[in-house]
Amino acid sequence: MDHPPLRIVRFSGAALAEGVEEHLIDGVPVRVTHVARTVADCFKYRNKIGLDVALEALREAWKGKRIGMDEQWRFAKLCRVANVTRPYLGA
User: Fold this and answer.
1) Do 73 and 45 contact (CB within 8 A), yes or no?
2) Angstrom distance (rounded) from CA 36 to CA 44
3) DSSP 8-state assignment for residue 53
4) Which long-range contacts (CB under 8 A, 24 or more apart) does 28-35 make?
5) Rounded-to-integer distance, Cα 24 and Cα 35, Å
6) Residue ranges with strand state E in 13-81
7) 69 touches 91 (CB < 8 A)
8) How many CA atoms lie within 13 A of 22 on its CB side?
9) Structure confidence at residue 91 (pLDDT)
């Protein structure tokens, strides 16, 4: 498959299971990450996808009232990006 470009990453432990919801789509169970978890993952892989993508994800999630500050902070600590996200969460 040529499009969209995919990059595979692996998770283990709490980072694998925390913030993952299972939904049925056409009878097929699909694992989808919570919005706050997705934003934290964007910051975790900011060097691969770009800091602008992570900031846009945070901005859109916050503007759409899809995340709370405490919730985002919890996932930032879980994904070990709390120090990176701190300046952006405060702004």
Assistant:
1) no
2) 12
3) H
4) 34/75, 35/61, 35/66, 35/67
5) 18
6) 20-25, 28-33
7) no
8) 4
9) 67
Q: pLDDT tens digits, residue range 19-74?
A: 899 999 999 999 999 999 999 999 999 999 999 999 999 999 999 999 999 999 99
Residue 4 has pLDDT above 90, yes or no: no
**Cβ(23)–Cβ(86) under 8 Å?**
no
Distances (CA, A) of 58 to 31, 62, 65, 88: 21, 6, 11, 9
C-alpha span between 49 and 55 (Å, rounded)? 11
Residues pairing with 29 in the sheet: 24
Handedness of CA 64, 68, 74, 76 (dihedral sign): positive
